Amino acid sequence: MPELALSVLDQSPVPAGGTGADGVRATVELARAADRLGYHRYWLAEHHNSPALAGTAPEVLIARVAAETRGVRVGSGGVMLSHYSPLKVAESFRVLEALYPGRIDLGIGRAPGSDGRTSIALDGHPPGEAAARFPGQLVDLLGYLGGQLPPDHPYHGVRAMPEGSGQPELWLLGSSDQSAAYAAHLGLAFSFAHFINPNGGPDVMAAYRSHFRPTEQMTGPVGSVGISVVCAETSAHAADLAACYDLYRLRNETGKRGTFPTVEEARSHPYTDRDRAHIAANRGRMVVGDPPRCRAELVALAEQYGVSEMVIVTICPTLSERLRSYELLAETFGLAPR
Predict the structure, then answer these.
(1) Which CATH superfamily does the domain covering 5-332 fall into?
(2) pTM for this prediction
(3) 174 pairs with which residues across the strands?
(4) Which of 65, 70, 88, 257 is geometrically suited to a Cys-Cys bond with 31, CB 3.0 to 4.6 A?
């Protein structure tokens, strides 16, 4: 890998005037490009009941993306474990590992990936109760994957099949110190979601490293950072593209959910002073600019976190603009094409 590895987190965004099917098809095309360009991982996100994000079933998308690529690792970013049986998640990813040995990542998240009502529809538990169940579910998942449920476990002897195909690489994803604490205690790799919470991340990552407990599978801490990036040939064009994401977030956070706006919509929107302040605060989640600026900011952020891998989330009005952003990053970081 290069000195700073670049990976992709794809939320399967739905473009203005498009459909969820368009978002899913774009995921497959972008994955092929990321593989050619030399990206290290390609992670698929999980969101529910969102008109703007089409990736509701990462395990299904992983199977397709892995079949369409050759060198890039493919995984979830992440499976929202509170919605599911740990045994079923272990089985799904054992099947994926059997199909694509040595290439599968299982990224696990604590958040619901949805609104509260949708979360209840998914797992039958109020969001607070689901969150309380998460630590036990995580321990059970590790037990199923490793074939090591303790003798007093009610399901001791139940095994996640197919066996004999190795294990997926396990990551815990989060935007808080709680997720980092779980990862450190259980000896898991940890990816901090700077694109969700841009505050305090370096301290969280430092605490994860200092409290990490080695295991047979992982002898030392391994971290990465998820960050929103919009890269274009010029900073002015990058700013135009990022303004579309700014408007999407503004609408979404005020209950006006929909697909991603166009550049024209972003330019003509009647922003209030409060809107502009909100957008300025949100920009802390993002790196926006031409290739030299994006490279400098990503390298600086990686140094602050003490990591050697950045997981890039890029959403632009069109697929061609998203592709170009990833191409420019690959070029400026000298990724080795496959």
Answers:
(1) Luciferase-like domain (3.20.20.30)
(2) 0.95
(3) 192
(4) 65
